[in-house]
Design a protein that fits this description.
By secondary structure, the protein is of the alpha/beta class. The protein is 45% helix and 18% strand. It has a single domain, classed as Alpha/Beta hydrolase fold, catalytic domain (Rossmann fold, 3-Layer(aba) Sandwich), CATH 3.40.50. The protein contains 12 helices and 9 strands. Strands 1, 2, 3, 4, 5, 6, 7, 8 and 9 form a 9-stranded mixed beta sheet that branches. Helix 1 links the parallel strand 3 and strand 4. It is globular.
Length: 284
């Protein structure tokens, strides 16, 4: 899969590889100071967090990485669980960060963020999962199961259908109606998903479908600040709010007029302002 570069910051970003107990992880790191680790969502490499990494690089050391099933990371054979993804993240934190860290993730990265906080609370001082869930059900489960089964049946979506299909799940109607945004999203999504290995999608998405941390959240000691987006089709706000409601130390935020991936291509500044507020308020 081709990845979008870090742009003008390429020379400043340190790319390294970390060997964990189950994977060889490609990681990207920039900045100095307390550590923030950005966990990519499904089908996304480290570069998915480039805007946030650059924003925080002045006061924090930002780290992201390619999870199993994407980018340059290689790992043990599937099936995988979110606990496997969380172990990779925890061992990466221990290798190239100074814990406890601030941990934030979107979508599948939100699930991983929760699981790291549950399984390795000493490594995390603040968790910020976004567009997340404690358990996937309803429309989201039916949609994800359909995507997985489609590929198990050997069916591939044609290139001309990829951007119109996936963008509708990623961005709200106002963003899709913006010619400038669509002009950026269409080619990027076409390349991204045309080069996606079907089995990697199956393995990542199945791990998400198998995930259930509802009981474990009740005893997790890590502060859990959970962000939802009002126009998010993939993880509707009610699904996200359940995470905050179940968490021992949960807080819930809902950003209006944003979709599942507005943080990347739509209104990143809105999300970044809230992230800054949470991080500065909670970590002093």
């Amino acid at each position: 899969m081709k990845t979008e570069a870090f742009g003008q910051f390429d020379r400043e970003v340190k790319i390294t590889h970390v060997q964990t107990s189950g994977a060889r992880m490609r990681a990207a790191q920039i900045g100095t100071g307390p550590d923030i680790v950005w966990v990519p969502g499904g089908d996304s490499p480290a570069e998915a967090w480039r805007q946030q990494m650059m924003l925080f690089a002045g006061e924090y050391r930002s780290t992201s990485y390619d999870p199993r099933g994407v980018g340059e990371t290689t790992s043990d054979a599937a099936p995988w669980s979110i606990a496997d993804f969380a172990r990779d993240c925890a061992e990466l934190i221990e290798s190239i960060c100074t814990p406890p860290v601030i941990l934030s993730g979107l979508s599948m990265g939100g699930l991983i963020t929760q699981q790291v906080a549950i399984d390795y609370p000493d490594l995390v001082k603040l968790a910020i999962p976004m567009g997340t869930s404690a358990y996937i059900d309803g429309f989201t489960r039916d949609w994800m199961e359909a995507e997985v089964q489609l590929r198990r049946d050997g069916i591939s979506l044609p290139d001309y259908f990829l951007a119109p299909h996936y963008a509708a799940y990623a961005l709200p109607a106002k963003a899709l109606g913006d010619r400038e945004i669509w002009g950026s999203v269409k080619p990027a999504y076409t390349v991204r998903f045309s080069e996606r290995e079907p089995q990697d999608l199956i393995d990542q998405w199945q791990a998400c479908l198998d995930f259930d941390c509802r009981e474990a959240l009740k005893t997790c000691p890590v502060p859990m600040h959970v962000i939802a987006f009002s126009e998010d089709v993939q993880t509707p706000p009610a699904m996200v709010k359940e995470v905050a409601d179940l968490a021992m130390h949960g807080a819930f935020y809902e950003l209006p007029e944003l979709g599942h991936v507005s943080v990347a291509r739509h209104r990143a500044d809105d999300v970044n302002r809230l992230l800054l507020d949470i991080i500065q308020t909670q970590s002093g």
